[in-house]
Model the fold of this input.
Amino acid sequence: MRLVTWNINSVRLRIETVMKMLDKQKPDVICLQETKTPDEFFPLDAFKDKGFKHYHFTGMKSYNGVAILSKLPLDQVEIHKRVGKTDCRHISARVDKKFELHNIYIPAGGYEPDPEINDKFKHKLDFVDELTQWFPKERSASTPMIAVGDFNIAPLENDVWDHKKMLKVVSHTPIEVEKFKKFQDSVEWVDAVRHFVPEDKKLYSWWSYRAEENWDAADKGRRLDHIWVTKKLKPALKKQQILRELRGWEKPSDHAPVILDLTD
DNA sequence: ATGGTTGGTTACCAA
Done:
């Protein structure tokens, strides 16, 4: 089983790019974030034509939006409203009656890493706290679970290009990393990507648009996009890929797709 | 120390 997560930064603008990726990688399930479209404008037919007959998405005008497209059957579909807001950042479904899949888009958090003066940063911290509370340990005992998405936090020193410089930059501040790790401990999530890549190796999934011409050489990336699995699924982990080269395609998203292969 | 780009929407906001 092949699973992809990708912050697409407008699914309507980049639908041809998504189709090209699907042709090359042939995943069974794809999770998108920042679809940036109300549901009635979601380009569903393009996915159906590629065999993704099962789907679950929720979107809104201009911002946010998450989608699960699947070749395998989905049931138990849910939309999760978080921290009292109606933005579209967390959906879930059971895939092929085998595991519960959560597609999550954690708020970016604005510029100033101080919840007292920056409501967006407060929103981000509250969002992670709520997720930590919402996934209790008992859940992972009964059902295998996978959580994917743009978590907008790079937790490890080698998940950013310069750990010291990034300590005051939203996405890598100590308070975010602390809350991120508490979330990760909530059901003993396994970081499925780092499972294959040692922690002393630099690894990124996002490169800012603000370094467009030399993003590859400068390589000032961050690992913001994640795939986690519960312990029961750890023996099934087979392979990971971050499709860095797609960041260099025409009109790219600033995020690269992250792929996980699991044995059936 | 600062500015740099993109997308949705159409004067800025969010990332």
User: Anything to note?
Assistant: Residues 9-10, 13, 34, 36-37, 61-63, 108-110, 120, 152, 208-212, 251, 254 of chain A lie near DNA strand B (CB under 10 Å from a C1'). Residues 119-134 of chain A form the longest helix (16 residues). Chain A has one domain: 2-262. The first strand of chain A starts at residue 2 and ends at 7.
